[in-house]
């Protein structure tokens, strides 16, 4: 693992904090309505930034606090393993994939957002690390803990309509595929070139599939 400071995690944490403070102090701007994933705005007003910006907004203090704590601790682990720029790419691509999944499968009237799409991507990327480091007891222990956390959260999501379970699933997929494609620096011999290329192709295929389902959903409502 890398021993330098997790600068990217600090930056992402700061961005989320600044945006949340703006939401709290300037409610008249309706930042969540302008930046959250809202499918009709994507379809009819071509607001494509909504595939990116929802990962930086939150709905209330508890939502922000929970995601902030998980990002702080999980982000340090993943940035230490993947390095700065790989960690940044995994985080952003996971959030984007999660937002595409929300676009595809949530009800058209749903407004969603939160860093959890990207954070679940970090868990997905770490599970991939666990698959490639079966000989490392410490990594295996963390992998089991994270896998249990994912299962528990997804189970709660089935009974809590306020949880964007599709966004979480999309984030896990995005994180696993991007983590597999980028590999772990200094240990890339554990990741075959064929598997890395395949991960890239599956990532692109998943995005296309989510767009198809999202457009199909709106065609059914017309």
From TrEMBL:
InterPro entries: Peptidase_S54_rhomboid_dom (IPR022764), Rhomboid-like_sf (IPR035952), Rhomboid_protease_S54 (IPR050925)
GO biological process, one term: proteolysis
Keyword annotations from UniProtKB, A to Z: Hydrolase, Membrane, Protease, Transmembrane, Transmembrane helix
A Pfam entry, by short name: Rhomboid
Primary location recorded for the protein, binned into one broad class: membrane
Coiled coil spans: none
Record localization: Membrane
Gene3D superfamilies cross-referenced by the UniProt entry: Rhomboid-like
Protein's membrane topology: Multi-pass membrane protein
One example GO MF annotation: peptidase activity
Domain of life: Bacteria
Transmembrane segments: 7-31, 51-73, 85-105, 111-129, 141-159, 165-185, 197-215
Domain Peptidase S54 rhomboid: from-to ranges: 46-182
Entries under PANTHER family matching the protein: RHOMBOID PROTEASE (PTHR43731), RHOMBOID-LIKE PROTEIN 10, CHLOROPLASTIC (PTHR43731:SF26)
Name by which UniProt lists this protein: Rhomboid family intramembrane serine protease
Organism, scientific name: Enterococcus hulanensis
